[in-house]
Model the fold of this input.
Amino acid sequence: MKTIAIASQKGGTGKTTTAVHLATAATLAGYDAVVIDLDPQGSAATWGDDRGETAPEVISGQATRLNVLLESAAREGFDLVVIDTGPAADAAARRSAEIADLVLIPCRPSAFDLKAIRTTLDLVEATRTPAFVVLNAAPIRSRSVDEARDVVLGMGAKVSPVVIYQRAAYGHSVIAGRTAQEFEPDGKAAEEIAALWRWVKTEMKIPPKKQTRAA
Done:
């Protein structure tokens, strides 16, 4: 079982959107995935309620019970756990980073957001967990993406090669308990999420499934 933690000190960076989209992309590719929602706001859990019985499963939890939740997920045979942390570098974020195989840090390509990731980068540096910044909600056809990438690299951090752009499909889909891949399968947002999942799968060395529902 592999574990991904989605972390960022700043709110509004797209942590929950990233978490549920990655877990659903894994599910569509034939993997058994679960989202553990540690954010006190419970946005992922609300999304899971709207989704009903459709996978992936979403579990609400607290950092103090994270080990128990992960042990339960392992017993149930999940291939992937995606942890959605709250908007603070608190105990939940630190514990998630310690346990995770990979930390993804969503960040909008703006000056305020770029400055705010320093605390999260310090956190993952302390836990020595492999981590990548994912540029998120990026304006289309803008130099800000290249500039933001340079800033992150200048901090000594790694950047995901896949950029998530500002697209209406993300917002419209999660309101209905779905994701962009389900809402608009042939759209640009769906392509971005599929690419992000393929990169994550390669980065984490997740073996292919013999039978898949989607590529």
